[in-house]
């Protein structure tokens, strides 16, 4: 029973490890002319991106937990490498200058993975592909969002359910590791050129909390990518510390039909309490943008996150326990068509 709750908490934290910094390869900036940047997508179009993602998460358990359960190891490490194809069906949006984008994930494969708890280690790479497909089929509903031509998210919908979350992806379609990075950073008003910088601010509502992120975007250089002359844009974002409670999670789940529909969560006792405290994070994303077609040709983002999970009110356990978690994720996307 205890390990079930610990594993559930670790999975919740693993989903949140979508922030951090990435490498910044150098190159000489080529000549370019100032121009406005917009995402010039065409209605009734389909775009496909190939995505590869690596994630590592280490959890260290507090003494109050390991002292109560002698079989509980002091730490757990999860490693996973996976690949998938993102398919985006694009239609004209409800208002001029907007697009309706429906995203689905296909050809999902677990390249490697393991969960290590003390001396126990489970190799996820041995899991048959058929089991992975079956598990993911029920967890990945169609993801639909409306964006404007600057890449700002107007509205979001999961599995046919509208989500009342402002800037769910961090304000732009590039704000999380859900596969929604196709559009890159939020673009500026007016003309820009290589060397120019602009800033944007986005918010994410989680229950009654508002998490703010400030982003700085710089056009570093021109560079050829897959035979296309692109502008390389570096986006650095900073998000302050925040705390998410079990009540916040329930409020979010209610938008998806209630906590009873969330596998692994529906049996939590009324006394259960949880707080996930994230340290301030910074993220760096590199985008290779075609300034002519207004499409992201490639995206590279990686980074780290640190947080503490506190849980209490569990059956047969007095008091609470804590876990310190450090996560790293690296994701790349490449336009395939």
Strand content: over 45%
Outline type? globular
- Per DSSP, the total helix count is 4
**What are the low-pLDDT stretches, counting only 5+ consecutive residues below 50?**
1-30, 165-181
| Radius of gyration over all CA atoms, rounded | 21 Å
The helix-strand sequence is: HEEHEEEHEEEEEEEEHEEEE
Q: What class do helices, strands and sheet pairing give?
A: mainly beta
Q: Count the beta strands.
A: 17
Distance between the termini: 48 Å
List the helices and strands and how they pair.
Blueprint: H1 2-15, E1 35-36, E2 45-61, H2 63-66, E3 75-92, E4 98-117, E5 120-123, H3 129-137, E6 143-148, E7 153-158, E8 161-163, E9 191-192, E10 197-206, E11 209-225, E12 228-239, E13 242-245, H4 246-254, E14 273-278, E15 281-290, E16 295-312, E17 320-335
Antiparallel strand pairs: 1-9, 2-3, 2-17, 3-4, 4-5, 4-6, 6-7, 7-8, 10-11, 11-12, 12-15, 13-14, 14-16, 15-16, 16-17
């Amino acid at each position: 029973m205890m390990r079930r709750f610990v594993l559930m908490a670790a999975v919740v934290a693993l989903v949140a490890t979508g922030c951090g910094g990435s490498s910044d390869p150098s190159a000489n900036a080529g000549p370019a002319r100032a121009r406005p940047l917009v995402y010039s997508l065409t209605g009734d179009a389909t775009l496909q991106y190939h995505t590869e993602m690596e994630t590592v998460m280490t959890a260290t358990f507090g003494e109050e937990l390991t002292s109560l359960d002698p079989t509980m190891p002091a730490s757990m490490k999860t490693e996973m490498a996976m690949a998938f194809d993102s398919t985006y069906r694009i239609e004209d949006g409800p208002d001029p200058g907007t697009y309706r984008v429906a995203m689905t994930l296909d050809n999902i494969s677990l390249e490697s993975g393991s969960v290590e708890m003390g001396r126990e280690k489970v190799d996820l790479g041995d899991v048959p592909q058929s089991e992975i497909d079956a598990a993911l089929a029920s967890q990945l509903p169609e993801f639909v969002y409306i964006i404007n031509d600057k890449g700002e998210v107007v509205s979001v919908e999961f599995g046919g359910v509208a989500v009342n979350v402002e800037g769910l992806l961090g304000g732009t379609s590039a704000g999380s590791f859900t596969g929604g990075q196709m559009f890159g950073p939020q673009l500026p008003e007016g003309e820009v050129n290589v060397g120019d910088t602009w800033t944007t601010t986005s918010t994410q509502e989680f229950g009654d909390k508002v998490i703010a992120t400030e982003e700085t975007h710089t056009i570093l250089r021109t560079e050829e990518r897959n035979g296309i002359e692109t502008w390389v844009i570096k986006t650095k974002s900073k998000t302050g510390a925040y705390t998410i409670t079990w009540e916040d999670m329930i409020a979010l789940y209610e938008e998806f039909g209630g906590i009873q529909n969330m596998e692994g969560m529906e049996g939590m006792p009324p006394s259960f309490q949880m707080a996930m405290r994230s340290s301030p994070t910074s993220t760096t994303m590199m985008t290779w943008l075609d300034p002519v077609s207004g499409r992201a040709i490639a995206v590279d983002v990686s980074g780290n996150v640190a947080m503490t999970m506190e849980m209490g009110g569990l059956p047969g356990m007095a008091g609470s326990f804590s876990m310190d978690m450090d996560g790293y994720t690296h994701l790349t996307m490449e336009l395939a068509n």
